[in-house]
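Hi U.,

Before I forget, here's the chain from the pilot set. I'm dumping it here mostly so it's searchable later in email.
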Amino acid sequence: MKLSIVIPCYNERATIREVVAAVRAAPYPDKEIIIVDDCSTDGTRDLLAGEITSSVDHVLYHDRNRGKGAALRTGIAAATGDMVLIQDADLEYNPNEYPHLLRPILDDKADVVFGSRFMGGQPHRVLYFWHRVGNGILTTLSNVFTNLNLTDMETGYKVFRREIIQSIEIKEDRFGFEPEITAKVARMRCRVYEVGISYYGRTYEQGKKINWKDGVRAIFCILKYNLFG
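Structure:
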């Protein structure tokens, strides 16, 4: 089965080379790499248009900054693989774990796989206490409405059968993508699996972008997409 890897990217000049190299070296042979640049202003675009463009399958560009969800919408629409995996461009997630993430789908047990930072014995960097508390609140609230028992709804590592993710109308432009897509796959009664992953979190000084406003938006999205579709 062919794997499409969608990499949304905004101002990731410091990491984009390493991410692309890691994705290319990931232990899965048949893969398509799609990068969507969300109007970066730090020189990322120059790298993508120059040395990186020949090492990936597609580089797509937004003419204005629209947010992670919008970048994913663009990349997912371009995917041609049997499975679609979301890979952040910031080195927080390890592409060597692709086989672990893909196994439930390859075994025909799952339609969607979430990579959980909070289950299993994989290493994760110790960082922000209140981020962990906030994540737990959002995941629990999402579970209340979806009746799933996820441990990490907000994870950046998600894998979908392509026909499923491309059938979903993604409306959120920013980090609201995570609760929106969780609500919609639950409503579709997809077979959802969770696998433990490692996590190498970044600090804000290193370029982390999510903030408390995104948490507030996530609560709104949980209510909106579970109650009103």
